[in-house]
């Protein structure tokens, strides 16, 4: 039999590993390995783990319809995965194993250890590329080095992408003549009402988005449904980046390659490529060697920020949205990150960890890249003197206060522009906290501090 080890690729279409295994003509088994303690060690959100399990449960019967059996095993950490493969090889006639490459240090070490087990048992290993538009290391400067600025990276990336583009793989051809064994469903602790489960629902979501969206015009307004809402599904591979690009090309033709939305998909590749090139980024180290590496110890400011009690309505709205839904609008992510690192001078790593602990779409490279960008410590980062004014950002991108009223309900009745910075008396009456910092003073302090 051929075993396909599903990881961050919880789908059937555009799945090179599954397609290759099914083309072998041998019986195919889908393997899912849950590592709850590893998930905790990586600081990932509990709801993300439940999201993964819900999608495994969705896949099991759908795989059976294609003639694919399924196994689900749980071992605490990555260290127990190689022994698991030893047991599977001892009890089953496994001829080959297929998986999609992963590129973070712990995952690389795990896969190398499993590869050794397979080699000793004379089991063939087939590694495939998936989930990103291009494999890491594919786009490089003329001297062979990694780009440190996004725009020239993107220009060359698009050239390579056009030259190498192939449509996403269709659903594999079903096996009709193999007995199928289905794994039992995995217990799921809680449901995520705002996020439909399953590849078919996500396929419909991306079709609707590509047909109806005006992404470039609407993406910065958090009260508008102007983004795709696909990031949680991309993070665990319910849909691939290549499928997203394929839908965009169907809708808009070749101009889709240079569209704003596809540019955001390329940012995702850029951060992934950077972390693959510089593994220290996965170890809480700043990209810039001369970046600020000591920050203000301000636990009260950090706690107020985490709880959405800063007294800055747009910041608090974003932080409460994160706590309640496991997601936050991208414009607001930039606002709250700038607030924490540049106005409160709190270590970006505290914000990175808090996001990862709550984000349904938590992605190691993208989360790290975004926080280092915001804090002026990363590659192609916002300069230290670019400091978002949360009030003017709020006035510009949530002009009617609709987003704030949704997530900070105590301010729902505040009229007009006052919603962006309520008066002291209004705050007292409504039980909303005063600002935890003075913006002008904090901005000047940050400029002086970063210069030093």
Question: What are the key terms here?
Answer:
452 residues; alpha/beta; Rossmann fold; Serine Threonine Protein Phosphatase 5, Tetratricopeptide repeat; DNA Cyclobutane Dipyrimidine Photolyase, subunit A, domain 3; 3 domains; 5-stranded parallel β-sheet; 20 helices
Walk me through what this model shows.
It is a single chain. The protein has 20 helices and five strands. The protein is globular, with a radius of gyration of 23 Å. By secondary structure, it is an alpha/beta fold.
Outline the secondary-structure elements.
Blueprint: E1 2-6, H1 16-23, E2 28-34, H2 36-41, H3 46-65, E3 69-74, H4 81-91, E4 96-100, H5 105-120, E5 124-128, H6 150-164, H7 199-212, H8 215-218, H9 231-236, H10 241-252, H11 260-277, H12 299-307, H13 313-325, H14 330-343, H15 348-358, H16 364-374, H17 390-397, H18 402-407, H19 424-430, H20 439-451
Parallel strand pairs: 1-2, 1-4, 2-3, 4-5
- Relevant CATH superfamily of the largest domain: DNA Cyclobutane Dipyrimidine Photolyase, subunit A, domain 3
Task: Give the C-level CATH assignment of the largest domain.
Answer: Mainly Alpha
Q: What is the name of the CATH topology of the largest domain?
A: DNA Cyclobutane Dipyrimidine Photolyase, subunit A, domain 3
CATH architecture of the largest domain: Orthogonal Bundle
Question: Between the first and last Cα atoms, what is the distance in angstroms?
Answer: 63 Å
- Give helix and strand order, one letter per element, not per position: EHEHHEHEHEHHHHHHHHHHHHHHH
The strand order across the widest sheet is 3-2-1-4-5
Count of extended strands: 5
**What is the mean pLDDT?**
95
Oligomer: single chain
Q: Specify Rg, calculated over alpha carbons.
A: 23 Å
Q: What does the overall shape look like?
A: globular
